[in-house]
Amino acid sequence: LPRLFRLPGTAQRLAPRRSLVEKNLELRAAAASLRAVGTRASIVLMVPELPPPRGTSEAARIVSQRLAEDYGVEIMHVTFPFVEAELPSSLAALLSNNPNCCGWREYLKLAAWTLPFDRVALLDSEMQAVSNADEIFDLEVEAEEGAAIEEGREAEGEEPFMATVATSAPLNGGLIVLTPSNATHHRMARAVLTTPFDMA
């Protein structure tokens, strides 16, 4: 969607985890861009409730508070669907050998399926709006036959919840339009913890 969103500069997806200062700048730029294009949607920041002893830092709380004050961002505290120690060894090895920006923390995105909205557009923090894209909330997308990622779910009476061009095709999580569902959230978390990840 090049006319709706942009990634400023070169996305550092494989770089080490960004500092809180860098993340703060990204979040402020994203929130400012959404306000500038006149979105009518709520702007929500999902803040993870990290397990003890780490917890959520005071600095992260300050960043969240200032986003709320300066841009009217709603702060919603969410929990990870699982902890790193619960990951299957095959997935842990895959994440170790193919690092992304956040490692297993990338699965915090699953919490978007628990948000109290009819529809959610989940954006990575480094994305910036260049025009109003509120129409994406009205999109109706149906998976083509054979394109469902969750094979066999139809036989169990469950509709496929996500699709790409083929079962093995990559899926970019920078922009996801979704319908929140606790049932879907549980299914995805269960799939992560029970699916063998063999990329050989």
Choose one word for the global shape.
Answer: globular
State mean pLDDT (0 to 100 scale).
77
Biggest sheet, spatial arrangement of strands: 1-5
Task: Specify the biggest β-sheet.
Answer: 2 strands, antiparallel
Q: Please report the total strand number as a whole number.
A: 6
Describe it for me?
This protein is of the alpha+beta class. 26% of the residues lie in helices and 11% in strands. The protein has helices at 20-36, 58-71, 89-97, 182-194; strands at residues 5-6, 44-48, 74-78, 120-123, 128-129, 175-178. The strands form 3 sheets. Strands 1-5 form a two-stranded antiparallel ribbon. Strand 2, helix 2 (58-71) and strand 3 (74-78) form a beta-alpha-beta unit. Helix 1 runs parallel beside helix 2. The chain is globular, with a radius of gyration of 18 Å. Mean pLDDT is 77; it is low at 10-16 and 143-157.
Note the topology.
Layout: E1 5-6, H1 20-36, E2 44-48, H2 58-71, E3 74-78, H3 89-97, E4 120-123, E5 128-129, E6 175-178, H4 182-194
Parallel strand pairs: 2-3
Antiparallel strand pairs: 1-5, 4-6
Give keywords.
single chain; 200 residues; alpha+beta; two-stranded parallel sheet; 26% helix
At a glance:
It is built from 4 helices and 6 strands, in the order E-H-E-H-E-H-E-E-E-H. The protein has 200 residues and is of the alpha+beta class.
